[in-house]
Specification:
Largest sheet: 6 strands, mixed
Number of strands: 13
Strand order of the largest sheet: 10-9-8-11-13-12
Structural class: alpha/beta
Number of helices: 9
Radius of gyration: 24 Å
Order of helices and strands: EEEEEEEEHEHEHHEHHEEHHH
Strand content: 15-25%
Helix content: 10-25%
Distance between the termini: 79 Å
Length: 336
């Protein structure tokens, strides 16, 4: 028996939604070719503050993006209300391809990796030379994450008035990593910010470090108050001394010639996601020697071809030692 007439109105037909809700009637989704370009400045409980044409715009992720999440530093396409006025909300409809990613896991046994920052050029690893004592294993882990994610590392050593930097610098000398050494007095009078700024101009730099090393104090000195206003009410970098950052936050350097991304203080840096085959790319003098390595070589086993490569004089043995020390950091605790 025919239940409906020949010319039915869709509004007259009762539907029973499935467990997953209503599905789109077409697989063809809008391309949003007129979407504005933006940069994610910070993320807070599903709300993303983005910079669009010099204005801060509050946005949320479009449903069509599924589980794909935007993080600080992401370049995104945004539609909707882009005025930046209070109580307005735009929509992120596309996340552009990333040039780099800084990732970490909670610990080395955690299979879930978290992208902390996207599209940064440089990773500034801030470490105090004393109070608190430096943690070389944590530095090693940050270096591995930088090499793996496509970021160039920078060592920023603070509190040189309490301890000399020579011993720590010697440990990383063979890696040819640029560094800046500062004292507490230089942090307070601005000299430290001036020297660090020379390493940041024209680049997007993510700052990481253990709580208490002076990272947020340095970021406050690098970004003047008038530039911080660009991020409006989302600015989480306040106060001096004690660490106050609770989420990653991108801040523009004076003159718009670079960006600083402050991240929360870390107690651990899990590397469960690291692939040794990507870390070797940071050692161009050793990489050609891996052609004779067995499949899935860890570069720290008896059959590794790097031993013969170095023995033949193609590279400095100290460089191979540094590579293996970094790769083996997953098997060591950060306090070793």
């Amino acid at each position: 028996m025919r239940r409906y007439g020949k010319h039915t109105d869709e509004d007259d037909i009762r539907t029973r939604p499935g467990r997953r809700g209503s599905r789109p009637r077409s697989s063809i989704r809008p391309k949003h070719e007129d979407a504005a370009e933006g940069m994610v400045l910070t993320v807070d409980r599903g709300r993303l503050t983005c910079l669009v044409d010099g204005r801060t715009v509050m946005a949320m992720k479009a449903r069509e993006l599924g589980r794909k999440a935007a993080v600080v530093g992401d370049r995104v396409a945004i539609v909707g209300d882009l005025t930046g006025k209070k109580d307005t909300l735009a929509r992120i409809v596309r996340i552009e391809e990333r040039t780099s990613v800084l990732r970490r896991t909670a610990d080395d046994d955690d299979p879930y990796e978290r992208v902390v920052v996207a599209n940064a050029d440089q990773l500034a690893i801030v470490t105090a030379l004393a109070d608190p004592e430096p943690r070389p294993r944590l530095i090693d882990r940050c270096l591995v994450a930088a090499f793996d994610g496509g970021l160039e590392p920078l060592l920023v050593l603070t509190k040189s008035d309490l301890a000399p930097p020579d011993k720590l610098l010697e440990l990383y000398g063979d890696l040819d990593i640029p560094y800046v050494v500062t004292s507490r007095e230089e942090l307070e009078n601005g000299d430290a910010a001036h020297r660090v700024r020379a390493q940041l101009e024209g680049r997007i730099t993510a700052f990481v470090g253990h709580s208490g090393v002076g990272k947020t104090t340095l970021v406050n000195a690098l970004v003047p108050e008038d530039r911080r206003r660009l991020t409006g009410h989302v600015n989480a970098v306040t106060g001096r001394g004690r660490h106050t950052t609770t989420s990653a936050l991108a801040l523009p350097l004076d003159g718009e010639d670079g960006w600083v991304i402050d991240t929360p203080g870390v107690r651990s840096f899990g590397l469960a996601h690291i692939d040794p085959s990507r870390v070797i790319h940071a050692f161009p003098d050793l990489e050609p020697g891996t052609e004779g390595c067995p499949r899935a070589c860890s570069h720290d086993e008896p059959d590794c071809a790097l031993d013969a490569w170095v023995a033949e004089g193609h590279a400095d043995p100290a460089r191979l030692y540094s590579l293996r020390r970094l790769l083996s950091t997953r098997e060591r605790t950060e306090g070793d």
